[in-house]
Write a structure and sequence with these properties.
Shape: globular
Keywords: Signal
Distance between the termini: 30 Å
Strand order of the largest sheet: 22-1-26-23-24-25
Number of strands: 26
Radius of gyration: 24 Å
InterPro entries: PNGase_A, PNGaseA_N
Number of helices: 4
Order of helices and strands: EEEEEHEEEEHEEEEEEEEEEHEEHEEEEE
Protein name: Peptide N-acetyl-beta-D-glucosaminyl asparaginase amidase A N-terminal domain-containing protein
Helix content: under 10%
Structural class: mainly beta
Pfam family, one: PNGaseA
Largest sheet: 6 strands, antiparallel
C-alpha cells in the first residue's frame, strides 16, 4: 500500500560574513556505512591552506564531556610550543596557526555549544553535531593566526574548554575531543607588514575569570541585562579592534523566525559601549544549530557557520583619544530585544607603537551624516524608487560608525523561502536528500563547493578555486533539501 508522504523542499540563501570562512578539514561519509560505524559530519567551508615554513603540531588537550553542564571547564597549562621557542619565540615567526578541534560521540545526544579559551581570550566557539545512535565524528580547523601574540606569550597560561553536556537514560552520548595547535614556522625572516596589518601586539580578554562553573562567556538573560569589564589600555596603543563572540540559546535560539509581536519580534542587535557611549553594534548572522529547524537537514552536512561560529569586529581606534589616559574604562555588552540567554564575550586586539611609550590620539574629523539625516535620505530614496516604478526592488544605505561614510545599494526580488511538494513513497521509510552550494570570493583567494548527500551518504562533491567576476566579497551559501514530513517547530 502506498503511504503518502509530504516532502519539503527548502531553499535557504545565506549571506555569510567573511569571518566564517575559516580553514576546515572535510571528509566524505563512507558510501556503505554500516549502522554501527560512526558517521563523519562536516561543514561546507573553505578548506585549510598550508602556510610557508615548517609545521609543528602540539596536542593541547584530550578530554571527555559527559555530565558537564554548569560544571567547571576542562583546563590545561599552556606554554609556547618548543618549535616556536627554537625559532626565537616571537609571534612574527608564525606564518600560520591553525586550531584543530576533533571530536567523536557514540549514542543519542543533543547538539551542545562549546568554547575554547587561552588565557581568558576566546579562540573558538561552535556547536557539536546532533549525534544519531550509531555515533559521529567531526572536526573543525580554524585559522587562529591573529592570536599569534597570545600563542607566543612567554610564561604559562591556562587553556580551557567548556562543553555543557547532559547524560541520562535517554541521552547517553559522551563527547570525546582532542584539541591540537598546528604552527607553521617561517624559515627565514619576513619583510615587515604594513602598520596595523600584522596580528595585534596584545590581546586583552573580556570574559569571566577562572575558576567558575560554566563557560567563560557572559550570560545575557534579557534585553535589560548588561555585561561589562573594565580595562586600562597601554599608553602606546595606536589601533584597537574589539572582536565579538556570541551565540543564542533557549527561547532565542530561533529568534530570526519570530513573528512581529511574539518574543520581541525577529530583530536582534548586539551592542558594545565604551564608558556608556555606543561604540558599535552588529546584527547577528542567523546561524542554525545542527538540531534546528529540521534535524535531517544537517546529516551529515552541518549548517553553515555552526561548527565554527562567526565573530564580528568593531573598530575602536576613533575612541583612542579618550582611552589613552592611563585610566580603566568600562566596556559593556547588551543584546537588543533579547528574550532567552545569549553568551557574549570579546577580545580586545591592540597594536602598540614599538618606537614610543605614549601615543597622542584624537578624532580629527567625522565623515558621515547624523541619524536624522540618514533617515531623511533613506525615506527620500524609497519615495523616488516608488515613483519610478521599481516594483519590489529597494535601496538602502548604511553609515560606517564614526570613521567614514560607506554607501551601498542592494536590489533584490522577494521570493518565498519555502516550497512544498507531495510525493507518495512505498514502505513508509524515511529518506532525505540535501545539497549545499558555497562560494567564497576574497582578496586572498576564492573557493566554490557543491556537495550533495542522500541520507547519511555523500553522493557527489565538486569544488574549485576559480574566482567569479562580480561575485560577493563574502561567502554565499544555499541549502536545498527534500525531507520526510515532520512537525516543524
Amino acid at each position: 500500500m502506498a503511504v503518502p508522504c509530504v516532502r519539503l523542499a527548502l531553499l535557504l540563501c545565506l549571506m555569510i560574513p567573511a569571518t566564517v570562512a575559516s580553514p576546515r578539514s572535510l571528509r566524505k561519509s563512507p558510501a556503505n556505512a554500516s549502522a554501527s560505524r560512526p558517521t563523519a559530519f562536516f561543514e561546507v567551508d573553505r578548506p585549510p591552506r598550508g602556510g610557508p615554513g615548517r609545521r609543528c603540531s602540539t596536542l593541547l588537550m584530550s578530554a571527555s564531556f559527559g555530565s558537564t553542564f554548569d560544571k567547571p571547564p576542562a583546563t590545561a597549562a599552556y606554554s609556547p610550543p618548543r618549535c616556536l621557542l627554537k625559532a626565537g619565540g616571537r609571534a612574527s615567526a608564525i606564518s600560520l596557526a591553525v586550531l584543530e578541534w576533533r571530536a567523536a560521540c557514540r549514542g543519542p545526544q543533543l547538539d551542545r555549544i562549546f568554547g575554547v579559551w587561552l588565557g581568558g581570550a576566546e579562540l573558538l566557539r561552535g556547536s557539536t553535531a546532533a549525534p544519531p545512535p550509531n555515533g559521529i565524528v567531526w572536526s573543525v580547523s580554524k585559522d587562529v593566526t591573529k592570536y599569534a601574540s597570545l600563542l607566543a606569550a612567554a610564561g604559562n597560561s591556562t587553556f580551557a574548554v567548556y562543553l555543557g553536556n547532559l547524560v541520562n537514560a535517554t541521552l547517553t552520548g559522551v563527547y570525546h575531543a582532542n584539541v591540537t595547535l598546528h604552527l607553521y614556522i617561517r624559515r627565514t625572516p619576513t619583510t615587515k607588514p604594513p602598520p596595523a596589518m600584522a596580528p595585534a601586539d596584545l590581546i586583552v580578554p573580556m570574559s569571566r575569570p577562572l575558576p567558575l562553573n560554566g563557560g567563560l562567556w557572559f550570560p545575557i538573560q534579557s534585553a535589560a541585562d548588561v555585561a561589562s569589564k573594565s580595562v586600562a589600555l597601554p599608553s602606546n596603543t595606536y589601533r584597537a579592534v574589539l572582536e565579538l563572540y556570541f551565540s543564542f540559546h533557549e527561547d532565542d535560539e530561533l529568534w530570526y523566525k519570530n513573528q512581529p509581536g511574539y518574543q520581541n519580534g525577529p530583530f536582534r542587535e548586539v551592542t558594545a559601549r565604551v564608558d556608556a557611549v555606543l561604540a558599535g553594534s552588529v546584527c547577528p548572522f542567523p546561524v542554525i544549530y545542527p538540531g534546528g529547524i529540521h534535524p535531517l537537514l544537517w546529516r551529515p552536512i552541518a549548517p553553515i557557520g555552526s561548527f565554527n561560529l562567526p565573530t564580528y569586529d568593531i573598530e575602536l581606534t576613533p575612541f583612542l583619544g579618550k582611552l589613552l589616559d592611563g585610566k580603566a574604562h568600562e566596556f559593556a555588552f547588551a543584546v537588543t530585544n533579547a528574550v532567552g540567554v545569549w553568551y557574549v564575550g570579546a577580545n580586545l586586539h591592540l597594536w602598540l607603537d614599538p618606537g614610543g611609550t605614549s601615543t597622542t590620539a584624537g578624532l580629527i574629523c567625522q565623515l558621515g551624516r547624523t541619524l536624522d539625516q540618514w533617515v531623511d535620505k533613506m525615506n527620500t530614496r524609497r519615495t523616488n524608487k516608488k515613483e519610478n516604478g521599481s516594483g519590489n526592488s529597494h535601496s538602502r544605505k548604511t553609515p560606517s560608525l564614526g570613521v567614514e561614510e560607506a554607501e551601498w545599494t542592494e536590489e533584490e526580488e522577494w521570493a518565498p523561502p519555502l516550497a512544498m511538494e507531495s510525493k507518495d513513497e512505498e514502505g513508509g521509510g524515511k529518506s532525505w536528500d540535501v545539497r549545499q552550494t558555497y562560494r567564497y570570493n576574497a582578496t586572498d583567494g576564492c573557493y566554490f563547493r557543491n556537495v550533495t548527500s542522500s541520507n547519511y551518504n555523500v553522493v557527489s562533491d565538486h569544488s574549485n578555486e576559480f574566482c567569479v567576476k562580480g561575485a560577493a566579497s563574502a561567502g554565499v551559501g544555499a541549502v536545498t533539501a527534500a525531507l520526510p514530513a515532520v512537525n516543524l517547530p
